[in-house]
Amino acid sequence: MVSPKFESTQRVRVREIGEIENPGKPVPLEKVMGLFGIVETAGRVYGTDADSAKYLIPAYFVRVDGIGPVLVGEEWLEDAPAED
To answer: What is the largest CA-CA distance in the chain?
Structure first.
C-alpha cells in the first residue's frame, strides 16, 4: 500500500471547488470548503460513479472545528501552515 500523502494529526486545508481543475471523489461538504482541519484517519474509499465505474482512492477523515469529522478525497486537501 502506498503511504498516505497526509498524516494523522496533520493540519490541512480543504480546497474550494474553483481551486481544483478536475475535482476527485469523495467531494467534501460545501460548508467545509476553504476551512482548516486536522487529519484523523487516512485510508481508501471504494465507490462507484453514476455510470457504475468502480474506484478505490485515497481519502481522509478531517475534523473541522464546529462541524466534526468530514470524509474528504486526497485531491481536495492541501498542507496548511502551523497555527501560531
So the answer is: 46
Q: What is the DSSP string of 11-65?
A: EEEEPPGGG-SS--SSPPPGGGTT-EEEEEEEEEEEEE-TT--EEEEEEEEEEET
Express each pLDDT in 4-27 by its tens digit: 899 999 999 999 988 888 777 788
Tally of domains within the chain:
1
Contacts of 82 (CB under 8 A, 6+ apart): 11
Give the C-alpha separation, 39 to 35, whole Å.
13
C-alpha to C-alpha distance for 24 and 75, rounded to whole angstroms: 6
> Is there a domain that residue 6 lies in?
no
Is 67 within the bounds of a domain?
A: yes
Determine the structural domain holding residue 26 and report its residue range.
11-79
